[in-house]
Specification:
about 475 residues, alpha/beta, Spore Coat Polysaccharide Biosynthesis Protein SpsA, Chain A, 7-stranded mixed beta sheet, two-stranded antiparallel ribbon, 15 helices, 19 strands, about 30% helix, globular, binds uridine 5'-triphosphate
């Protein structure tokens, strides 16, 4: 986009103030500003200003939510064969080259306060492996077990894209073939003030931020990743977030159940820690499965109990999904493309004051940001499968620098998970008086994907002494 086109486009859209400081900018800065402006989807923004900025969409639920039917973690009596067959099917899908992994890693990770892409954050308790390496090793091992490499699609954001590519290249893709790892960058949306005016982050930079994890659906299509999956014969996509070190990137039972039940989109759920836990709630509204954000679930429903005294809305979302490729094609393809709803978030956004040229960071929310959420695709799927998993097996996100959902809690949970696995193999691990393991244990993802190998390695371990550091590979 050249300067004249950009100027007339912004003027036509009532956003000409983006050029306020043009005369002060060096040529490189002018180019940068034009590049930023070229990324703005003005027509979507114009549509959102009346509904999401000047007023807020109603948070009232559209219908009467019902709890969802979720498949249990362990098969009900008489269903053992179904689960065995599903797991076998999952393994066959991998062996047939029909499974790919998708990691969304385009977020800004502001709460963690780490100045590199979040996937580079070192987390494993003994070996200090970064998140990306844990996933890479699991994907590599699952592919080796199936006899076929598993393609891995990694969604980045504008600021994490190049650093992420460089990081993988410097580390030789953690043993994966570069041909099997595809990076694609998500789109951005500008932050606007309460009148809908786009904010300038600096005199030559628009305040742009990634358009939410739901942006992956469209970005998969526009980047060519979806077409690449089709070319490779991939039928199912295993979706997870970059900040969850407990996740199984390739879970044969989950993927097998997804296909066995004919689902277009599936989800892993965990029982909520408490009524008001800050996770999305799976529900059925007007016959469609959806996720109701914790902020939107009325307290009366959040506290509701069944006649047995159980929490009625107990299935919490951990952002682990399976997608059928054909469903993604239907969502994103041509005339039939289905749009996800936009969410608004009020945030304090640093910006340059037009009158003074000063950059300020208000301590109160001053701006609206727009995001798409991946779980909003659930109601669009004709068939949905939800599998209830134990939280300790699959979920402990790294969101904050300290406290809840921090590196410390994720590491603690990784140790607990590894210790459970050892104990399931008959290995005793010393425990402290509060019941916590008295050893720092880490199991290589390559062993986790293969129970038989894990048993052999565990059997060879010998006694674990209190305070020991154990790495099993
Ligand atoms: P979060 O919603 O926790 O956001 O993302 P975040 O950016 O990681 O962290 P904060 O809120 O700034 O502290 C959950 C997952 O979705 C991805 C993130 O990378 C993470 O894996 N995500 C989020 C994207 O890929 N794109 C986005 O636009 C937002």
């Amino acid at each position: 986009m050249n300067a004249d086109t950009a100027r007339s486009e912004t003027a036509r859209r009532g956003q000409e103030h983006l050029f306020t400081f043009w005369g002060e900018l060096a040529p490189g800065q002018q180019r940068q500003l034009l590049e930023d402006i070229a990324q703005i989807d003005f027509s979507t923004l114009e549509r959102l200003i009346p509904t999401h900025v000047r007023s807020a969409p109603s948070a009232a639920l559209a219908g009467d939510p019902e709890p969802v039917d979720a498949l249990p973690d362990q098969p009900d009596p008489g269903k053992e064969d179904d689960y065995r067959r599903a797991e076998q099917l999952g393994l066959e899908l991998v062996a047939g080259g029909k499974v790919a992994a998708l990691t969304v890693a385009g977020g800004q990770g502001t709460r963690l306060g780490f100045d590199r892409p979040k996937g580079e954050f070192t987390i494993s308790p003994v070996m200090n492996k970064p998140l990306f390496q844990l996933f890479a090793e699991a994907i590599l091992a699952a592919g080796r077990r199936g006899g076929r490499p598993i393609p891995w699609y990694v969604m980045t954001g504008p600021t994490t894209d190049q650093p992420t590519r460089d990081y993988f290249a410097e580390r030789s893709y953690f043993g994966l073939s570069p041909d099997d790892v595809t990076f694609f960058c998500q789109s951005v949306m500008p932050a606007v003030d309460r009148e809908g005016r786009i904010l300038l982050d600096q005199k030559h930079r628009v305040a742009l931020s990634p358009n939410g994890h739901g942006g992956c659906l469209l970005a998969l299509a526009t980047s060519g990743a979806l077409a690449d999956m089709k070319r490779r014969g991939v039928e199912v996509l295993s979706y997870f977030q970059v900040d969850n070190p407990l996740v199984a990137p390739i879970d044969p039972l989950f993927l097998g159940l997804h296909c066995q039940t004919g689902a277009e989109m599936s989800a892993v759920a965990v029982p909520k820690a408490d009524d008001l836990e800050r996770v999305g709630n799976f529900a059925r509204v007007d016959g469609r499965v959806c996720v109701i954000e914790y902020t939107d679930l009325p307290p009366a429903l959040a506290h509701q109990r069944t006649p047995d005294g159980d929490r009625r809305f107990d299935a919490g979302s951990i952002a682990v999904h399976a997608f059928s490729r054909t469903f993604l094609e239907r969502l994103t393809g041509g005339d039939e493309a289905i749009a996800l709803p936009w969410h608004r978030a009020e945030k304090s956004v640093a910006h340059v004051e037009l009158a003074t040229g000063e950059r300020v960071l208000p301590d109160q929310p001053n701006a609206v940001k727009f995001e798409l959420f991946v779980f909003d695709a659930l109601p669009l799927a004709n068939q949905v499968m939800i599998l209830l998993r134990k939280r300790t097996d699959c979920f402990s996100p790294v969101k904050n620098a300290e406290g809840v959902d921090s590196a410390a809690t994720a590491q603690r949970d990784m140790i607990r998970q590894a210790v459970h696995r050892l104990e399931a193999c008959g290995v005793g691990v010393p425990r402290r008086s509060d019941g916590e393991p008295d050893a720092v244990v880490e199991i290589s993802p390559a062993l986790v994907v293969d129970e038989e190998k894990l048993r052999v390695a565990a059997a060879a371990l010998g006694q674990i002494h209190p305070g020991a550091q154990v790495y099993l590979e």
